[in-house]
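Lab notebook, design round three. We kept the backbone fixed and only want residue identities now. Task for the bench partner: fill in a sequence for the structure below.
Input structure tokens:
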């Protein structure tokens, strides 16, 4: 890291907090973290890591500080409250589009937590995707992809709601539908890998800054580095497969 930044600790001191803050502001002002994310992704097809067969969409809630014990005596106005199950959360959502073959992230967007997942699908899907996978929260995604409902050539592949499955009686149709849902779930599982990397390996479980713009800039950096981690695993798997 010292070689990358160009710091020689033998002749100069470590940059102070103000220097780092100014550097971060330059990254945000010129959208350079997004450029870094795009440049890293542009290099991945050279290693056959982006197949462009389909996209898996998903979102995760990132908590923000709910306390009003600050100078402004208020919460971050750009963060909102939402309910998931029986629990309430305050913060933002990180929306991602992941390649269905490699599990690498190609699209990132940040919104307040109260924004419905399905409304962001248009910003996460590539034009040449043949399939778009999502959980039950993306029901009706065809409306946001300018497609007609239930057409034979639809790209949308959304998980069935639990209520729909419970209404089915014991029959051959139920068995087939459950097997189909299990196959779709196995494909969607890849979208959890980037979230695992940034949350568990990088420790990103709470927002670090105020405002969506600053936090989205950080998300681009996190998912860009996450792609490098996952790309290394893909190469390792390929090497082991060739040896075997």
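Proposed sequence:
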């Amino acid at each position: 890291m010292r070689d990358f930044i160009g710091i020689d600790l033998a002749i100069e001191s470590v940059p102070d907090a103000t220097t780092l803050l100014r550097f971060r502001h330059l990254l945000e002002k010129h959208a350079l973290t997004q450029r870094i994310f795009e440049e890293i992704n542009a290099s991945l097809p050279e290693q056959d890591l982006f197949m462009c067969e389909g996209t898996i969409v998903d979102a995760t809630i990132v908590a923000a500080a709910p306390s009003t014990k600050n100078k402004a005596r208020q919460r971050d106005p750009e963060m909102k409250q939402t309910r998931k199950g029986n629990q309430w959360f305050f913060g933002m959502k990180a929306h991602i589009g992941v390649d269905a073959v490699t599990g690498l992230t190609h699209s990132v967007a940040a919104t307040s937590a109260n924004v419905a997942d399905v409304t962001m699908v248009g910003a996460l899907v590539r034009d040449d995707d043949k399939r778009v996978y999502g959980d039950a929260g993306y029901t009706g995604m065809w409306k946001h992809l300018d497609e007609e409902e239930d057409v034979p050539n639809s790209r949308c592949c959304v998980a069935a709601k639990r209520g729909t499955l419970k209404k089915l009686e014991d029959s051959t149709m139920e068995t087939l539908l459950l097997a189909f849902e299990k196959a779709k779930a196995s494909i969607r599982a890849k979208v959890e890998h980037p979230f695992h990397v940034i949350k568990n390996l990088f420790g990103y479980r709470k927002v670090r800054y105020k405002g969506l713009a600053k936090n989205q800039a950080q998300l681009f950096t996190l998912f860009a580095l996450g792609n490098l981690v996952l790309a290394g695993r893909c190469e390792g798997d390929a090497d082991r497969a060739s040896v075997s």
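Keep this in mind before ordering anything: Residues 2-243 form one domain.
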